[in-house]
Amino acid sequence: MKIVIFGLTISSSWGNGHATLWRGLCKHLARSGHSVVFFERDVPYYAGARDLYELPGGELRLFSSWDDVRQTASADVRSADVAIVTSYCPDAIAATDLILSEDRAVPVFYDLDTPITLARLLAGEAVPYLGPRGLRDFELVLSFTGGPRVADEFRDRLGARETRPLYGHVDTDIHRPVAPQPHYRADLSYLGTYSEDRQRTLETLFVTPARARWDLRFLIGGAQYPETFPWSPNIYFVRHLPPPEHAPFFASSRLTLNVTRRAMAEMGWCPSGRLFEAAACGAPLLSDDWPGIADFFVPGEEILIARDEHDALAALAMTDAELQGMAQRAYERTMNQHTSDKRARELVVLLEQTTSSRVSRQQHEEA
Fold first, then answer.
1. Where does 214-366 have alpha helices with state H?
2. CB neighbours (10 Å) of residue 257?
3. Confidence (pTM)
4. What is the pLDDT of residue 367?
């Protein structure tokens, strides 16, 4: 099938979690024989940190304004089987209108930021990537978040017909066990863009343990960290790691920390792709707690949970054998359930089911 995607970005992994996920999905969709076209507005802050210029097995269409690309987008949508609009796509509403006006491709919405979407709705705020009809016109809504609330909230608040989870995943071509590198060596590492709503948890589970264990080396990798961040002499920093550097970063960590954004943690069932990336690289996992985490990794066996600095310090005191045994179990779980190729197959099944249901409904209406 031909799949057209209107997204935030796939060309730059700087400061966002969308690009890495789309790269893994699109690559494995193409390997399975599907045609993928990705439309991305060419904005300066992604262009300045671009780390992908061509979409392997697909087509990347960068454009400066919707007016410039509308005719091309219209032609692609007319020949597509499925057209997907994503959260935080700057042209989401215009793309939705185009897909509906062509009335050819099955319209799908993929919310990679479900907790943020629902938090804004609950606060009475506008959601810039949703038009006045919400999700009513989409045949399928995919959600990066699962759990018991999402489908009901999307149906009741936005009119969604069918909502299914499509969780994060890891591209094992990029994220895999590799030799550790001295400049990434860390007793505890953390990889993530700076976020104010993660800061308190990061200070509790990372900064405080660093100040308690001056004999250990701590490492942060990410973008947008302010000068006011509470650094200490044993906390080292790497500014923005492109995906090819993730594997040596994680492989050089005795233990790596995951901190979930507040809205994601409160809703639950929203695993960060970083969890799967780190596990695929063989790094032992330490994470904050949130509802549903046990559906992805077994606490105490495949992942360690830290609710305060004492839990983090206890994790750092574990033996290498204990940590490596846990890392091996997390690696096996990830290879079995959370890889990009498996997620791409899940997506294809969902799209085929939706396409079949649409055809059946249209035939029934015509009869």
1. 246-251, 262-267, 273-280, 309-316, 320-337, 340-366
2. 29
3. 0.92
4. 62
